[in-house]
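S1.2 Input.
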Amino acid sequence: MDLNPAEFKPEDPKKYGERRRRRSGLAASEYRAMKNNEKIWRVVYGIPAGQVATYGQVARLAGLPGYARYVGTVLKQLPDDSHLPWHRVVNAQGRISFPAMSSQYQLQRSLLESEGVVFVNDRLSLRKFAIQH
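S1.3 Output.
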């Protein structure tokens, strides 16, 4: 499944109203989570190549302040064939959150380096590479 936040439409009350949620068979919390996921996908999709955002920045920009861990959970659940630039999200220390030297760590680091992001002692400079919002 290819998740492309650019194709998501702004919320339409008729489409996303309570009646629609009930017909969908989803619990209210699941329905709200789906909408929050969409907000996170939009933010991540908007991170330009060669720049990064922290989990906390993504949460704030998605209108979910304090939900940095939730951002990580949403990104962890992306399908393997997603084109969302998940690799542009790092922790607040400018480090990759995967265990050092794991295959996921190596993949994320190589994707970032291919976009011009520079690591020094396994850290990147948030001053230099973080989006400014």
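S1.4 Remarks. The helical segments are 13-16, 18-24, 28-45, 55-61, 68-76, 103-114, 126-129.
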